[in-house]
What does this fold into?
Amino acid sequence: MQAAIIGLGRMGANMARRLLEGGHDIVVYNRHPEKTEVLVSEGATGAYSLEDILKKLSPPRIVWLMLPAGDVTDSHVNQFASLLEAGDIIVEGGNSYYKDDVRRASELAKKGIKYIDAGVSGGIWGLKVGYCTMVGGEKEIFDHVEPLIKTLAPEEGYLYCGPSGAGHFVKMVHNGVEYGMMQAYAEGFEILKSSPYGDNLHMGQVSHLWNQGSVVRSWLLELCEDAFGKDAELENIKGYVEDSGEGRWTVQQAVESGVPAPVITLSLFERFRSRMENTFADRVLAAMRREFGGHAVVKKGDESKVTSKGAGKVSHSRSDKE
It folds into this structure.
């Protein structure tokens, strides 16, 4: 089957490779042409402008976008809207907000252009193991592009989720769940590391152990094992955690739907917290404890006097007036 992949980053390039390996005729385009040339050397057809892409595709054209969500994707959708013809298909494979998909599908339908939203999970390992894919849009159009999706996905690794927006909606919640799982693992390893047994435990070995029939086994633990194997103390990593949007949208949707989601919400806020040091809020907390209870505060420059495991054990009495 013929299609174009637009955007040859970590995901897009390997998706193009997997499609090529599956026998598809793939046109590739990237704003940096050197990335295009790499895929051309591996059997893809190179395109060097949006207009060039269309010349190298036969109708009905399939254009698969793998671009950052938001303005970049919107810009490309708008440009293709003026270039494509009725019956052509845009597949949006990034992590777009599902309400953007609903808007785009409606606007493109006026020109007869079809739109599919495909939430793709698999990261840098997708080339080898496949991409779990969640798809929304018209069922007839999904059926048409299904050979591409089937090649990309592992066995039983894709699902038609419903009308426009459904694919990215399911992917959004998937990523929200991922936030919560990652936070739980992170907190568990922190508790282990800070315990009386922490100096005797190798977290890579614990990760490996938990994946041997345990109820908490997962691919995330495999990745933890790999990370601890490279750097047992993770000393070369700063604890600064970004979020790419889906966690925020999941929490927003929980608010709109009136659904309690405390774990996902807290995991998102913990990511925000990871980017802050010596916050004003923490200084306010320390000041309040000093004022109402006479508790000691750590003054600027004296941080080294506080141990990494905290000031002391948890008190089970109320004599401290807190």
About this structure: The chain has 13 helices and eight strands. Strands lie at 2-6, 25-29, 45-46, 62-65, 89-92, 114-121, 132-136, 158-162.
